[in-house]
Specification:
Number of helices: 8
Shape: elongated
Number of strands: 6
Strand content: 5-15%
Largest sheet: 6 strands, parallel
Helix content: 40-55%
Strand order of the largest sheet: 3-2-1-4-5-6
């Protein structure tokens, strides 16, 4: 059997609505249940930092299984995604979750917040949880950890789904909309 710990990655600003401390609690729950798991948190500090620090001091004061790396230059993020086994995105408030799409495009199976618009973006290509409930997060992570076939299926499906999101497609759609709007306004067909 593989005794390597499962490496979970969460990239996002450390803000209250991103729930990093809940993800940390979920990882601690899984470890206390004997599941080898490690969490890497990447992102600039913001309003959730004090809550995260307090949680880390309580559950992993030695930093044995949770690492907070702070902000990582964008050019180095691909290496972080490459070294992870599972991506997690625990935000409860987004317009378009670009970081979720990055994780999907990196080919990671995603454990994801069930709050909108995340399900509209990830679709059936991930495992969902309530981002305000560490037991729910632990359940979603455990589902992926315990089922390598599910992880592989979700990783493939997430990667395929991420291909629909591109700046080129966005720009083309926007310009097409602008031209059509202009033509309708001017009565041009």
């Amino acid at each position: 059997t593989n005794h390597q710990p499962c490496r979970v990655l969460y990239v996002s600003i450390i803000d209250v609505y991103k729930h990093q401390w809940k993800v940390a609690e979920a990882v601690a729950q899984l470890r206390s249940g004997g599941i080898p798991i490690m969490l890497e948190l990447i992102g600039p500090p913001a309003r959730g930092m004090s809550r995260l620090k307090e949680t880390l001091n309580r559950i992993d004061p030695e930093g044995l299984f949770i690492t907070y790396r702070g902000p990582v230059p964008y050019e180095q993020l691909d290496k972080c995604y490459e070294n992870a086994d599972i991506g997690v995105f625990a935000s409860s408030c987004e317009n378009l979750p670009n970081i979720l799409i990055e994780g999907m495009a990196s080919g990671l199976p995603m454990a994801c917040s069930d709050m909108g618009p995340m399900p509209e973006v990830l679709g059936d290509a991930g495992v969902y949880f309530n981002p305000e409930d560490s037991s729910s997060i632990a359940g979603a992570l455990n589902q992926l950890i315990e089922a390598p076939d599910l992880r592989a299926r979700m990783a493939h499906a997430a990667f395929e789904r991420a291909q629909a999101f591109s700046w080129g497609r966005c720009a083309n759609g926007t310009f097409r909309f602008l031209v059509e709007t202009f033509q309708r306004h001017k009565g041009i067909n």
